[in-house]
Amino acid sequence: MTEVRIINGSHHALPRYATPQSAGMDLCANLDEPVTLNPLQRCLIPTGLRMALPAGYEAQVRPRSGLALKHGVTVLNTPGTIDADYRGEICIILVNLGQEPFVINDGDRIAQMVIARHEQPELVAVEVLDETERGEGGFGHTGW
Question: Label partner for 63 (CA 20 to 30 A): which of 5, 41, 72, 104?
Answer without folding.
Answer: 5
